Amino acid sequence: MTYEQILILVFAIAGVLVANFFWSRFRHAFIVTEGAAGLLYHEGRLGGNLESGRHIRWGRNFRLVLIETRKTLLQVPGQEVLSADNVGVKLSVVLTLQIVDPAKSVQAADNYAAHIYSATQAAVRTAVSGVTMNALLSQRVAIGAQLRDLIVPQAESVGVQVHAVEVRDVMLPGELRKAFSEVLKAKQEGQAALERARGESAALRNLANAARLIESQPALATLRFLQMLEASDAGRTVVMNDLSSLLPTLGTRAPRSPAPETGET
C-alpha cells in the first residue's frame, strides 16, 4: 500500500469518526406515543407541540415532555358543607377531564389537577349552600350540571376540558341518616297498607255486585252451585238438608179442577 493510499484511508476514517460524532451529538430522534402530545423545549424555551409519531431534530439542548391527552378521572373526596337548611353533609364528586391544550396546561399552572381540584371544592360549597337536603338527594344530575358550569371556566384557563361532573356520594350524619331510613320505611309501609285496602275494597265491590245479580237472578246461584259440584273431587259426597235457598222457584202450578160428581138417579 502506497503512502497516498494510506493517507486517503486515514482521512476516510477520520471523516467517518467526525460524522459519527456530529450525528450522535446533534441529531435527536423523538418518539411521541399515541394518546399523548409532546412539548419540545430547545434551550429552555418551548419550541412547539409534537403529535404522535417519530420526529427528528438537529442541534443541541433539546428536551421532550410528554403530556397525556386521553380522558382521565379526577375524584374529589367528601368534604363537609352546609346545605340551605343548615344540614351538614359530605359530598364526593368525580370529574371526567381531558387536556386539549398541552402547552397551556403546563404554562398556566404548575399543577393543573390541583388547580381544578381546588376549583371543584369551591364549586361544591357554592352549589350545596343554595339547595335543601331533599333537593340534594333527589336532584343529583341537576346539581352535577350546575357544578360543571362552575368548574368549566377554571378548567379552560389551564387548557383542560371538563366532559362530565358526577355527584358520586352524599354522606349524611348518623342521626339524620337514621331519620331518613325511618321516613322511608314509614312510606313503604303506608304504601303497602294502601294497596291492601284497595284490594279489599275491590273484593267487597265484587261481592256486592254478585249479591245484587243473585238477588235479581236466583238461577245464578243454582248454576254456581252446580259448577262447584262439577269442579269438586269425584269421590266427595255433599249432603244438603234444604235446597230451597239454592233452587229457584219453579212456579206455582195451576190446581186441577175437581172431577164432576155423578148424581144418583
Short summary of the structure?
The chain is of the alpha+beta class and 265 residues long. It has helices at residues 3-26, 102-107, 112-128, 133-138, 140-156, 174-216, 219-231, and strands spanning 27-32, 36-42, 45-50, 53-58, 62-68, 72-82, 88-99, 160-171.
How would you describe the overall organization of this protein?
- The protein has 265 residues and is an alpha+beta fold.
- It folds into 3 domains: 23-68; 72-172, Band 7 domain (Tetrahydropterin Synthase, Chain A); 174-224.
- Helices cover 48% and strands 25% of the residues.
- It has 7 helices and 8 strands.
- The strands form 3 sheets. It has a 3-stranded antiparallel sheet with strand order 3-2-5, with no helix packed on it. It has a 3-stranded antiparallel sheet with strand order 6-7-8.
- Residues 249-254 have low confidence and may be disordered.
CATH hierarchy: architecture of the largest domain:
2-Layer Sandwich
How far apart the termini lie comes to: 190 Å
| Total tally of structural domains | 3
Structural class: alpha+beta
Strand order of the largest sheet: 3-2-5
Q: Tally the helices.
A: 7
Full CATH superfamily name of the largest domain = Band 7 domain
Question: What characteristic shape results from the CA principal axes?
Answer: elongated
Tell me the CATH topology of the largest domain: Tetrahydropterin Synthase, Chain A
Radius of gyration: 47 Å
Mean pLDDT: 79
Q: Helicity, in percent?
A: 40-55%
> Which CATH class of the largest domain is shown?
Alpha Beta
Q: Main β-sheet: number of strands, strand sense, barrel status?
A: 3 strands, antiparallel
The helix-strand sequence is HEEEEEEEHHHHEHH
- Unreliable segments (pLDDT under 50, ≥5 consecutive)? 249-254
